[in-house]
Design a protein that fits this description.
Oligomer: heterodimer
Number of strands of chain B: 15
Structural class of chain A: mainly alpha
CATH architecture of the largest domain in chain A: Orthogonal Bundle
Number of strands of chain A: 2
CATH architecture of the largest domain in chain B: 3-Layer(aba) Sandwich
Shape of chain A: globular
Largest interface: A-B, 35 and 41 residues
Number of domains of chain B: 2
Number of helices of chain B: 18
Helix content of chain B: 40-55%
Strand order of the largest sheet of chain B: 2-1-3-13-6
Helix content of chain A: 55-70%
Radius of gyration of chain A: 25 Å
Strand order of the largest sheet of chain A: 1-2
Low-confidence stretches of chain B: 15-24
Strand content of chain B: 5-15%
CATH class of the largest domain in chain B: Alpha Beta
CATH class of the largest domain in chain A: Mainly Alpha
Distance between the termini of chain A: 29 Å
Mean pLDDT of chain A: 89
Radius of gyration of chain B: 23 Å
Mean pLDDT of chain B: 89
Low-confidence stretches of chain A: none
Number of domains of chain A: 2
Chain lengths: ~375, ~425
């Protein structure tokens, strides 16, 4: 008996062994290799950049220091800012549009199936196809800019992918203060939620942390100057074109997620609310939206990691050299494979990985914990 | 039964692998980005090679993407992985030298140049661009010119202006044209065409010696003279269309042809586009002059092929290089590609009117290399030059742009 159980375990282990080995080498091994490369000077010396077996030296966090505080890496900082703004607007746009579409379809209009397919179709395209289509539509002298002429207005002149206007601008040197304020606000929110849930210990801890961060933000942060000169970054309006295309593609997918959630809400619950005297609007704000919260969270995670890593859509729409719509993933590609700065490219890759991990890891942990509780 | 089947399959596969090296002697793999419009020119070369060497099978590994944007990335992964193609296309000059020669990945071709007599057949300016570290590193197949200004003669006559000879004249002409209702006298396209325009301005402002000095390190990037380039560049940009970065170079050329703009500064592949694709007659439908201030200088770029160390079929690759440098090879390739031969003795009757005039200049002018197309600066510099351009466009400060260029030049060790 015992022997048999043993073999069953062994077979189970053997069955998953190949995938463990493959994932170990091709995912975690390569992540480790990239991390190591980012700590070296690979690419600084042209005679070693593409040598058969490059001799590299360990330089610690030099590449990261250059990226965040170096004079000539302003492009990376702008890309980082761009990608954060892009992620925020992209998630907001997809959630809002997806929810509206899902609610409309949930009202069972005529040809419901047709509309569902219609809105979901863009998701079936690859980003490269979407990018090419929208690139044509958003040409400065054509497509969308010609629309007003249909009703007799002069054609639009907005540079969807090329505008040089920036909004929501801030100085990179104020970043420590801004980060401090954001963290303090987040911690305060955690404290408030814990207080409400009567989790005293957590509330006190979060409140204490808030006070500490506020003190740091007021006391120490203004003295931290990453750059010796002011460097202003902001949201490039040229990203609006990319946003339009990205939301067009992913809103249908978000709609499908919400639709699944909506069908999970029982009819009895809605009827009960109506019997209790809730208006149609209240049914949504008080019953349905709170029940959809887990779906919103999943959608945010999925959309968030897509937009942080976005490469193909931008490449197809604006090309790799349009600095107005540059993102870190593109810069990583250009830095490594055009500029031969492999170490710096690896460092950009690691920064990207950390950003995505920041979103995905807490989510995975909460999922695993839920699984364990069940 | 199943097990037997998979065994047979494995055996068959193994025998395939074993058979491969036996036939490897008769192959040649060439790596390039010539597809689409440029495909027929490459095919003419391959056909010629096949005729001379019927026993060698040519493997044409093309990676599409204009100016090699994708091909260069693929090539780098192959070189890093220790799997070089037998011969690969690369922009002649620093794009090869700064990346692969510096890393000791190429074979010196000096002996080939001597035995074929190419040291005399190619102009000395070109040979010096191909040389570094005491060797010559690639065989140039074609020559394109970067500093050309295109216009439509009829339109200029209509507006009563002549092609300007200097940048000051250009700016004056620009004002005249604006007075006559031409909003944007200069047609400009997406980002790299901006760098392309910059190099014409820089050559015009600095002259050929100053321009070459920038790349040798004798004239610093933040020298007042180099700063002056950015100043002039800013004024020239005021004559260009503000929606430039949304247009391809062809669309920019189209604007000049349609009369929305008077001038377009673009490399002479534009002649191929206008003469072959749009069927315009050179000299009537479109005409050309050197970019303002650059008369007598030929800013060149060239596609070339080199021989990587560790090429699997070295002998076949050497035959390929010999063909590329020969008169027959160059005259088979270039009329189709829309470029001129690098050799000074090519048969001009095979070329159209524009190319004949370019070939004449090629023989008589001073030769300097292009920045935008990989001849004078290593990739580590040229790939970051777009950032310098951004810094200029964001603040319109010549000083900021010049010092950023200096910082990058110092970082990559330009001119060392």
């Amino acid at each position: 008996m015992r022997w048999r159980r043993h073999t069953r375990h062994l077979t189970g282990f053997l069955v998953v062994l190949p995938s463990i080995a493959l994932v170990g080498v091709f995912v975690y091994g390569f992540i480790g290799r990239t991390l190591w490369a980012s700590l070296t000077d690979w690419g600084k010396d042209p005679s070693q950049a593409l040598a058969i077996s490059p001799i590299t030296h360990f330089v610690g966090l030099d590449n990261y220091r250059e990226l965040f505080t170096g004079i000539i890496d302003g492009r990376f900082r702008q890309d980082l800012v761009s990608t954060v703004y892009f992620t925020l607007f992209f998630i907001a746009g997809c959630l809002l549009l997806g929810l509206v579409l899902a609610i409309l379809i949930d009202h069972k209009p005529r040809a419901e199936g047709f509309f569902r397919g219609l809105f979901l179709f863009p998701f079936a395209l690859s980003f490269v196809v979407t990018g090419t289509i929208w690139r044509w539509l958003l040409q400065p002298g054509g497509g969308v800019n010609q629309l007003p002429t249909l009703v007799g207005l002069p054609p639009g002149g907005f540079g969807w992918l090329t505008s040089r206007t920036q909004v929501f601008r801030f100085d990179w040197n104020h970043l420590p203060v801004i980060a401090g304020v954001l963290v303090a606000v987040a911690l305060a929110a955690v404290a408030a939620v814990a207080q409400r849930a009567r989790n005293r210990r957590r509330a006190v801890a979060a409140a204490a942390a808030t006070v500490a961060v506020v003190a740091w933000t007021v006391g120490a942060a203004p003295d931290i100057q990453p750059l010796p000169f002011p460097e202003v970054h902001g949201f490039n309006l040229a990203f609006l074109g990319i946003l339009v295309a990205a939301v067009w593609q992913m809103a249908g997918y978000t709609m499908a997620l919400y639709l699944a959630g909506l069908t999970g809400i029982s009819e009895e619950l809605r009827e009960a609310a109506v019997v209790e005297g809730a208006t149609g609007f209240q049914v949504y704000t008080r019953i349905i939206l709170p029940l959809l919260a887990p779906i919103t969270l999943s959608a945010m995670i999925i959309l968030g990691h897509i937009s942080l890593k976005i490469f193909d859509l931008v490449f197809a729409m604006a090309g790799p050299d349009n600095a107005r719509t540059d993102v870190p993933a593109l810069l990583m590609f250009i830095t490594s494979f055009r500029g031969n700065q492999f170490a710096k490219g690896a460092a950009i890759g690691v920064v990207l990985l950390l950003m995505v991990a920041l979103i995905v890891v807490p989510y995975l942990r909460s999922q695993l914990r839920e699984g364990a509780q069940e | 039964m199943k097990r037997l089947g998979s065994f047979v399959l494995a055996a068959a596969f193994a025998s395939l692998l074993a058979a491969a090296p036996a036939r490897a002697q008769e192959k040649l793999e060439i790596f390039s980005w010539w597809a689409g419009d440029e495909g027929p020119a490459l095919k003419a070369l391959i056909d010629l090679y096949a005729k001379q060497n019927p026993s060698i099978e040519v493997i044409n590994s093309t990676v599409t993407g204009g100016s090699g944007v994708n091909a260069r990335a693929v090539l780098k992964t192959r070189m890093l992985g220790g799997d070089p193609p037998d011969s690969f296309q690369v922009h002649a000059g620093q794009e090869l030298i700064g990346t692969y020669v510096a890393a000791n990945r190429m074979e010196d071709l000096t002996s080939l140049f001597k035995s074929e007599g190419w040291t005399k057949q190619f102009p000395p300016g070109l040979i010096s661009l191909l040389s570094a570290k005491g060797g010559i590193w690639s065989v140039p197949v074609n020559i394109h010119r970067s500093n050309v200004m295109w216009y439509v003669p009829e339109n200029l006559k209509k507006w009563g202006v002549t092609p300007p000879k200097t940048w000051d004249e250009f700016l004056a002409t620009c004002q005249t044209l604006k007075g006559k209702g031409v909003q944007n006298p200069l047609a400009l396209g997406e980002n790299w065409t901006g760098i392309h325009l910059w190099e014409s301005v820089a050559l015009g402002v600095l002259g050929p010696e100053g321009w070459s000095g920038l790349w040798k390190g004798t004239l610093k990037m933040d020298d007042p003279k180099a700063e002056k380039v950015w100043e002039t560049f800013g004024k020239v940009l005021d004559c260009a269309n503000p929606d430039a970065s949304g247009l391809s170079w062809q669309q920019a050329t189209d604007r000049m042809l349609k009369g929305d703009a008077a001038f377009n500064i673009m490399g002479d592949w534009a002649a191929g586009y206008m003469a072959t694709t749009l069927k315009l007659t050179p000299g009537e439908g479109f005409a050309w002059a050197p970019s303002p201030g650059t008369g007598g200088t030929f800013m060149m770029l060239s596609d070339s092929f080199g021989l990587p160390k560790g090429a699997k079929h070295r002998e076949a690759a050497l035959k390929w290089l010999r063909l590329l440098g020969s008169k027959d090879g160059q005259d088979a390739f270039n009329p189709l590609k829309g470029s001129i031969a690098a050799r000074l003795d090519s048969d001009l009757t095979k070329y159209n009117a524009y190319l004949q005039s370019a070939a004449k200049d090629w023989k008589s002018n001073k030769v300097v290399g292009s920045l935008a197309h990989g001849a004078v600066a290593p990739e580590s510099f040229s790939s970051q030059f777009g950032t310098v351009m951004e810094i200029y466009l964001a603040g319109k400060s010549p000083k900021a742009a010049a010092s950023a260029a200096r910082a990058i030049a110092d970082q990559v060790g330009l001119g060392k």
